[in-house]
């Protein structure tokens, strides 16, 4: 195969992986835009429908590292095909779910492949290109998540309103099937070049900054999902948004997420913790004023954009901090980092459901989110001072 043909083949494979990551990212976030539709269809409270978010995130948290470890030594192609096959089947079950319990089970099944697929696909994409192009390959593949957030969620919310929430899962099923066929036709069948020695990597949990990062992730990001899980019904209730308004607001959130993610990706390594503190302060501020801005449609769109920017400005900082703080054990650290984010998602959705059931007010969701995020801010401050102390001691020992 010529170099030009090989490059075209690699680009095609990465594009197929983008389709897969888009569909997986879409199914994770789509529920937030169709909670009201699901709740109305099954005649349950919207707080109960929010348990779908908790179930999905908890499943990713528990199964991601486990499935990754089990499959890490196997050839990439059959593993990716198997995971994508489960994904398609689970979303088909969601389309046909006769009751809420079956829908919840299908969400758990869909989430069981999430962490492993992303981990294996990321490594596979990096193995196909020269070292200097690995970041670009990974960024291209992860572009599926960004597109899912910015376009997929608002579009899904619109379809759920004018048609039915099952249509959204039907589209996800079709996208997953396209991804499955693409994997079958384009991905070569080969074993991984480097097999991580996972048993040698558990020492990462002895590193203080890594533990700080996990704790900050769980607390700080739980605050985001206390509010975001119920943002669609909240905007209907406060801003009086209909189908078009909700679609615009969710698009604004996704656009803000893209902006925040882009900003965080440019932060120098030595400013990670300090920038994270600043972003969390901004997030607390947005959560605190959101209910008061949300009563005015134009202000609600602006607040939603700022919410997305602050919410998605934190994950790249935290993930980079985990990897950079891991002198050894980066594989297991990265896997646990993904689980920590999804644990935060599950906790946030669960706490938000309790707050909504107990108070009956969407305003308290944002107050609760701000309070939990403030705990993450306190931990970030401790991490910052601990980091400075370690650097000071290092300089003294060096001199």
How would you describe what is shown here?
- This protein is mainly α and about 400 residues long.
- The protein has two domains: about 1-195, MFS general substrate transporter like domains (Growth Hormone, Chain: A); about 195-399, Growth Hormone, Chain: A (Up-down Bundle), CATH 1.20.1250.
- The chain is about 80% helix and about 0% strand.
- Helix 1 packs antiparallel against helix 4 (about 50-70) and helix 12 (about 245-265) runs parallel beside helix 14 (about 295-310).
- The chain is globular.
- It is found in: Cell membrane.
- Its main location: membrane.
Let me know the number of strands.
0
DSSP helical segment count:
17
Cα radius of gyration in angstroms: 21 Å
Q: What is the share of helical residues?
A: over 70%
CATH class descriptor name of the largest domain: Mainly Alpha
CATH fold naming of the largest domain: Growth Hormone, Chain: A
Helix-and-strand structural type: mainly alpha
Summarize model confidence as the mean pLDDT.
80
First CA to last CA: what distance?
A: 55 Å
Compute the number of structural domains: 2
β-strand percent reads: under 5%
The low-confidence parts are none
| Shape label | globular
Largest sheet: none
């Amino acid at each position: 195969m010529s170099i030009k043909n090989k490059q075209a083949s690699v680009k095609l494979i990465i594009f197929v992986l983008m389709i897969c990551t888009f569909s997986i990212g879409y199914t994770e976030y789509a529920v937030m835009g169709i909670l009201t539709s699901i709740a109305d269809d099954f005649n349950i409270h919207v707080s109960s429908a929010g348990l779908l978010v908790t179930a999905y995130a908890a499943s990713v948290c528990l199964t991601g590292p486990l499935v990754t470890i089990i499959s890490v030594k196997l050839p990439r192609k059959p593993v990716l095909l198997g995971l994508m096959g489960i994904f398609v089947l689970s979303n088909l079950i969601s389309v046909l779910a006769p009751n809420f319990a079956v829908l919840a089970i299908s969400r758990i099944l869909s989430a069981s492949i999430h962490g492993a697929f992303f981990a294996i696909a990321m490594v596979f994409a990096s193995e196909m290109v020269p070292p200097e192009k690995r970041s670009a390959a990974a960024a291209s593949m992860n572009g599926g998540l960004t597109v899912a957030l910015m376009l997929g969620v608002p579009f899904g919310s619109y379809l759920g309103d004018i048609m039915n929430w099952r249509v959204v899962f039907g589209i996800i099923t079709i996208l997953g099937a396209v991804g499955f066929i693409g994997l079958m036709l384009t991905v070569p069948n080969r074993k991984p070049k480097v097999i991580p020695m996972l048993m040698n990597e558990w020492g990462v949990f002895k590193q203080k900054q890594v533990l700080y990062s996990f704790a900050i992730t769980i607390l700080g990001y739980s605050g985001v999902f206390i509010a975001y899980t119920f943002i669609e019904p909240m905007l209907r209730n406060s801003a009086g948004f209909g189908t078009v308004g909700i679609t615009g607001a969710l698009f604004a959130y996704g656009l803000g997420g893209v902006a925040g993610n882009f900003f965080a990706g440019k932060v120098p390594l030595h400013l990670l913790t300090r920038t994270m503190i600043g972003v969390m302060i901004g997030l607390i501020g947005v959560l605190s004023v959101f209910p008061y801005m949300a009563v005015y449609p134009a202000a609600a769109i602006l607040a939603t954009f700022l919410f997305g920017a602050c919410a998605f400005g934190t994950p790249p900082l935290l993930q980079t901090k985990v990897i950079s703080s891991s002198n050894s054990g980066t594989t297991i650290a990265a896997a646990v980092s993904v689980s920590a984010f999804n644990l935060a998602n599950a906790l946030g959705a669960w706490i938000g459901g309790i707050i909504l059931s107990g108070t009956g007010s969407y305003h308290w969701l944002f107050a609760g989110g701000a309070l939990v995020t403030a705990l993450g801010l306190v931990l970030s401050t401790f991490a910052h001072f601990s980091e400075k102390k370690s650097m000071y001691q290092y300089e003294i020992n060096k001199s």
